[in-house]
Please model this.
Amino acid sequence: MAQCVQSVQEFVQDSFVPMVAVLCSEEAERVTRKNNLSFAELLRPFCRLTSEGHIRDPNNQVQVVKNLRICVNNVVTNLNSPSTFSPAQRRMLNEVVLSCQPQEGAATNVITAGDYDLNFSATTPWFEAYRENFLQSMPASEHEFLNHFLACLLVVSSTEAVPVEQFLKLSQEQHRVQHSGDYTNPKWFIPNTLKYYVLLHDMSEGDEQRADSVYEDMKQRYGHQGCYLLKMNSRTISAEEDEQIPDPWSQYLHRNNLQNQDVLEDGAAAVNSAAVENNMNAAEVDSPEKDGAPSGLESHPLQLDTASSPGSLPPLSAANTELKKAAPEGGAAGSHGTCLTLNDHGHIRQFIQEFTFRGLLPHIEKNIRQLNDQLVSRKGLSRSLFTATKKWFGGGKAPEKSISEPKSTCGLLYPPEAPELQIRKMADLCFLVQHYELAYSCYHTAKKDFLSDQAMLYAAGALEMAAVSAFLQAGAPRPYPAHYMDTAIQTYRDVCKNMVLAERCALLSAEILKSQVKYSEAATLLIKMTSEDSDLRSALLLEQAAHCFINMRNPMVRKFAFHMILAGHRFSKAGQRRHALRCYCQAMQVYKERGWSLAEDHINFTIGRQSFTLSQPENAVTAFRQILTNDSRQTATQQGAFLREYLYVYKSVIGEKEDSLPQLPLPCIHSSATRVYFGHERRLAEGEKQAATHVSLDQEYDQDQASMWGHLEEQLVASANRGVVPGNFQPSQCCLNSQTDNLRCPLAVAEEPIVVEVSFRNPLKVPLALSNLSLLWSFTAEGTSPSQENAEEAITNEETLTQGMKQKDDIVTTEIILEFHLGPEETKLARLRLLPHSIGQLNIVGVVYNLAAASSGETAPSTEGQQTLDLMVVRGRQDLKIQGPRLNQTKEDKMVIRHGLDRRLDPIITPPMPLMEVFFLQFPTALLCGEIRKAYVEFCNVSGVALSGLRVASTHPDFFTFGSQTTTPLTPVSPTSAENCSAYKTLATPRQPGSVATEVLVSAGDFSQPSGVMDIPIEGNTLQPGESTQLPLWLRGPDQEGVHEINFLFYYESTEKGNKISHRVLRHSVFICASRSLSVKASACRSSGPPHHSLEDQGSGGTLVFIDVENINTSEAGVREFHIIQVSSSSQHWRLHKCINPAKDKDCKLTSRERAKLCFRATPCKPQATSNAVQKYTFADLNLGNERIISSSTPCGDFFFRGCRSAEVQPVEAPTSRTTASSRSQVCVPTEDIGNIVKKCNELDLNIIVIWKAYVVEDNKQLILEGQLHVALQTIGKEATSLTPKEETQEMVLLKFKSEAPPPVILPAAELSQLIKTNLHYPETYTHPFVQDSLCVVPVTLTLSNCSQARVEVIIDLRHKSASPESVEVHSSFTWVGQTQHHLQLRPQEVLCLTLRACFLQPGVYNLNTPRVFAKLTDQGAMCETSQQTASPALIIINSA
Model:
């Protein structure tokens, strides 16, 4: 239980006090009425005695009476004897609780239990007020005497003509009320009630001497201890202004109302404030049986009817009328005791003391003695005889009633003079004067008698008071018998069906148990007392039980919360909405954010409802927000009800505040997922045109892609700025999201839309309907510095959206989405647009919309339904607050959680810029590897500003070309007329057998550009507003099969300089599926034939080039066959000279998986005249068909140069690093020269272009595709291929921790031997008559060619090398004759012929390839043998003649 102001002893003592009745004459009542008080009310604040009193017990021991309080009430007669509260009393209790609310800033308890921190009110003054009023308004009962009147004050005014007569009248009236038997109420303690005569003297109007003389007369008549002269009203009302007298009566007035309620007619009672305050719905008003005020009070069986009672005296009824008149005035005036001075207060206090000590206490003492004497005399008889007598003669008990007459529900009813009741009466008297020991023994005795007689009501009363007496005994000789109380409560409740007595018993016992720290027992007791017959009582007791749980040594937090909820529910049923709200709020502390989601929802819903009915709409809205924003586990129906209730409450809140838009909790907005897109959304393809993909909100953001685009843009910006990237360069970002860099304010362009994509999530299981959805923004015009920026200067569209005014379209046009539906638990994106017209700073603040619960039914609502639907629509806003990325740079950032800025919603609006759109025509999606296709690209300037500086960069610069101005062929202007034309520039040239290649010299500068950026050749380099231009574009299928993503980035600038945006870019991504076409392998070897000294072939003969072509196309693309129509070469040093294929004169056809081998002779290029200029490339074309394709023009030349450059770019670094490594490890420098010389000797650097046509059948039409494949022959003897080899996975290499010394570089013999080329010239057959001449000598010419650019020394050794037995045997048949060793020196590129003679002894086939040739550089020490003899055998046939 909660803390109380009184101690438990004070509380129990004050619950049972001596009762004193008051009878006033009419004149006396008038005198007291001057103070807005009745006589009983006048005395009430002074009824507690400040000094001790004394009485003697039957054993003549003095008992001290401390802190005694008496209760003074008017005599109110009643015919019925109510055992329960009347409706008026119930209503009064309800009002007492209602009027007592927790004060703002009252003391609160903060309890920490486990991980709960609870804050709740330490005291419950409403419970104490209820308890006090409940105990004071207990109806008098037959089975106990504690609240029966012990004495009666007869009050007469000194202004009466004959005061003594009035005293006589009043005395007779009291006697009649007590003894006539007409009235069951009031009840009197003992037959000879103490009458105390009070003469009331009004100092302001009466004669004081007369009053004194009357008082003297009274003392003679009634004795000085039985009367008193009370002087009052010493002050006149006019003196009120002078001094302020305290008003001790106000706190007792509601108690006074209790007495008045019995007098006033119940039906005439005004509507109580509880009903007004709570404005309860009809459904929620309690039924009349409960605490709520019933409507039909007039017919209530317990209604008090004083005025119409037959025996009432005129003075009494008159007094009641006075009461009726004065009661409302007294309550309204608010000032009591206005005619009383502080001395008068003292007089009243003195009077009470005199009356108690001189009159009341002696009277009680006398009666205790008398009763004790009676009981002692009875105890003389044996107990058994006494019992037997009772059994035979009835023992003074009331005769048994007939069966038709109902017996008391509680068993027997004793007559007033029954001995058992005398014991009880004595016990009650002892209890009232604090003689608890004697009281306990009497109660104990009475209890046994009552139980033996089965008089359960009496027994329960005796048990209750025995327990209280035992507790109050000083020194506590015996423990508190809680089981007595439990039995009493059970008997009252279950046997006697008297809940009022049971409740009193429970209140006393719970307080006692609490004082003994038995909180668990107290809580159990209080919970047992809750029932359906009184919501108010149940609510108060459940609340006290909750306090018991929280005050235990180990606080039971969840039990506290649960019982608080139950209490709140019962308070609500009792109409006590403020208390209900308080209970729910206190319980919420326990359930909040603990995973009790359904309990939380219930509490929040109730708090919302109660707050709304108590005119606290803000609190209601907050509570409802909690239900709707949490991930609720409620059913859809329940959520729908919550939502409707919420909207209704919200509507009323908004109704009060028309000026600003409130924040709405639904739907949830995922702020960080907000994306902002600047610019027009791209136009889709029109007819054959395919628009550039650019950036759109439909694309997912990819970090790698973004960095790739950034890299391309950097290349473009560098190209536009003479190769330098400006320091303030930032990649363009059209679409901002949570992964982009949003630290700077983005730049937007006036007259171009800004699209904000907001992610809405509906957390509920019911659909939501949003309407009139738009963005909320504020705008600051350019020229306003941030320091001057005031609220007035920032223009916002909030007012227009709030009040439905015309939009501010001159600054920013705001698009409104009329309807936006969110399904149950759906996440949906809304794209909201703004179109800025002015230059300045725009801030997108949030979204504004109307929220309604979407109707799940499809039927059209009726007009009435439509109106209610309209009522349930609320307009509000939600702000878009985006948290930037967490900072993690400095130590401070890592220690605390800090977030950076995110400026994506704060664009700076800049002046208009050019805007370009790009369209592609006849752009393929699939190509064969190396296929050449011609397409067209159209550039349109759709803005009002001219654009220039048009460039493009790509991830695959070798995929496309715009051609070069010098070599671009004249092509048909329109795409349609070019349908069947070749993409190549061709000449009709019939092929003659043995024809040599046609050569063209071309400078590389005509084609390639230094970087991967291409300038787009448009006329005048400027595109005016509204203009468009179309350019041809040649595409070449990638060399590798598969799907390729090819990205283009178009760059352009405004012709007007000095804008914040320096340039703009447009992205285009295309996917090309490349399928296999031909595989070309090429190899070169030195021609082993003798050099021809003719005009055609200058120098040291030529090189043979073998080209192996295989059709590797899988016929998915419908390709029937490939024709190789031309082979071209391009090189600065070599050229293809002629085709030496043992060929037919037709071109080469390849069907699926066929292979062809072509053989060509290559010769070095003619030396070029200009040495200072850049060396040009020689293009040589050998056509195998009837038309020659000019390979040096666009597109063939372009793709050749692009292919070369991309090949050069990639593998540059690896070889250089290797060379340096080897050169460092060299000890002597000349070895390096050998390497270089050998390398140069074997260098070929011949690029071969194989041009083909493919015949494709598609849709029963034959198409001719054409294409080119490139092979770069770098070195003689090494095979090159058009297919890039697939990368092999590297094998794991063991880690070496110690660096080993590099091995010395020894050049292999094979490499060095290639410095010298040898040829043997001899007749194939030789006939010799061996018969005449046994020796056959044949002349053989050995030709030596120096292939290098250095002087070489050569040694020719003709002696046979005997490596193995076989070789000796083979060569033993012939021998070289003459000089067997020759020393020669060859100048660079020199050819030398040496005549040798071979001698044969018999006919046969001989291999002449036996001379060993050693070569070395002239300044080099080591010789090296050439590998000539291993090349091929030189066979000669010797015939005998």
